[in-house]
Amino acid sequence: MTTMQPIKRQTLTSAVTESLRQRILSGEFADGQQLRQEALSNEYGVSRVPVREALRQLEAEGLIQIIDHKGALVSKLSLDDVLELLEIRAMLESELLRAAIPCQVAADHDAAEATLREFEQALTSNDIRHWGELNSRFHLALYRAAKRPNTLALIEQLHNKTDRYTRMQILFTRTMERAHEEHSKLLDLCRKGAADEAADFLRFHILSAGHALEAYLQTQERR
Q1: What is the mean pLDDT of residues 154-179?
Q2: Ramachandran angles phi, psi of 162, nearest 5°
Q3: In this predicted model, what pLDDT tens digit does every residue of 69-116 receive, in sequence order?
Q4: pTM: predicted TM-score of the whole model, two decimal places
Q5: How far is CA 175 from the centre of its chain?
Q6: DSSP 8-class letter at 73
Q7: Which of 20, 90, 102, 194 has the fewest other C-beta atoms within 10 Å?
Q8: CA 155 to CA 150: how far, in whole Å?
Q9: What is the CA radius of gyration of the chain?
Q10: How many other C-beta atoms lie within 10 A of the C-beta of residue 49?
Q11: Mean per-residue pLDDT, 173-188
Q12: Cα angle at 57 between 18 and 205, to 5 degrees?
């Protein structure tokens, strides 16, 4: 009979971290909501140690803030914060794509296209929870050929921080078709090897999403 090996603490911490990350990004935990260690450890059936370590990791990613006497709170970004993060994304991602395109192969394009089909289905079915995840997966698939893992990891963190706002922008500004069209054009430019044109278009794509969100929120404030 095979003896079951105990789950390593690091594996447990990673599992709790991933679960909490997805619950924050899906909107299950709202901006500003307090995450209580005791309640979470009871819910997951683990000690407080992996929960505490998971919360520290999520704080490093910018998804929560740990504040004295208040504990862990889901981060709430101002519009200015979101726009700044999108500007950083536009700068980093456009240059990473420019470097990636000469190194891309058919498999990279096929992976991006498969994700794009999933994204289109999620948009059609109004599967809001997965919009941000699929959007990020599509973009990252186009960047990996650059073989710059540190830049890619930084971009992934930026995607996590702006995920909720990506979904908000698509949902409230009703730009589902536009998002799909722009992604399709971006993939087409990559297939053609048009690195400079693709980088410029990607920059436009990211910044225009920020402008659309800004215009929507300003309209709501005037009501």
Answers
A1: 81
A2: -100, 5
A3: 888 999 887 888 889 999 999 999 999 999 999 999 999 999 999 999
A4: 0.72
A5: 18
A6: E
A7: 102
A8: 9
A9: 19
A10: 14
A11: 88
A12: 70
